[in-house]
Structures are given as structure tokens and as C-alpha cells.
Design brief:
about 110 residues, two-stranded antiparallel sheet, 4 helices, elongated
């Protein structure tokens, strides 16, 4: 079989590459803090076949957002709601953009 000729995307933000200790060190947190975030449903790291947690740059961004919300005075339950609303807001904005593009195509025909 020929090797894949596509260039490697070493910067894919959703590619889980960091172990828990590296992710914790990068975010200046204890690994246990990341486990708590996961247990509370704030974070869902990828897992290897052996069950080892792996974090992506997207996960690190989410951890940073959690820290910002904590600094703003929210508790973990409130943070979970805010994160869920932010995801829903992005989804709705995407749908609105799609609907506007469809309308523009319809009006242009």
C-alpha cells in the first residue's frame, strides 16, 4: 500500500496529543483539577485504546475558558450551563448564516 501523500496537519486543534500531566502543566493546574472538570461534565478528553486521557488544543482552550469563568465568580455548575449555552449560540449562528445564504440564493434566482 502506498503511503498517504497528504501533508500531515500537525496543528489540527482537535487532535488530542497531550497527556493529562502535560495538559495540566501547560494550563498551570493540578491533574486532579482536570479530572474534576471531566467528572462534572465540563471537559471530555479523548481516550487511547488503553483508556489514557489525551487533550487537544481545543480542550486546552476550553480549560482556559473554564478558568476565566471561575475567575469571574461562577461555580462549576454555572460554568457548565454557560459552556452549553455558548455551544448552542455558535450552532444557532451557524444555522442563521446558512439560512441567510439560502435566502440570498433564492432571491437571486
Amino acid at each position: 500500500m502506498a503511503p498517504d501523500s497528504r501533508p500531515l496537519d500537525r496543528h489540527a486543534s482537535d487532535h488530542a496529543v497531550y497527556g493529562i500531566s502535560v495538559a495540566a502543566e501547560l494550563m498551570n493546574l493540578a491533574p486532579q483539577t482536570l479530572r474534576v472538570y471531566e467528572a462534572r461534565g465540563l471537559l471530555e478528553p479523548s481516550r487511547t485504546a488503553g483508556g489514557t486521557r489525551r487533550y487537544s488544543d481545543d480542550d486546552l482552550g476550553r480549560i482556559q475558558r473554564i478558568g476565566e469563568l471561575l475567575a469571574g465568580g461562577l461555580n462549576l455548575a454555572g460554568i457548565k450551563l454557560v459552556l452549553e449555552m455558548e455551544i448552542e449560540n455558535r450552532r444557532l449562528h451557524s444555522e442563521l448564516g446558512d439560512a441567510r445564504r439560502r435566502l440570498e440564493r433564492y432571491e437571486g434566482s
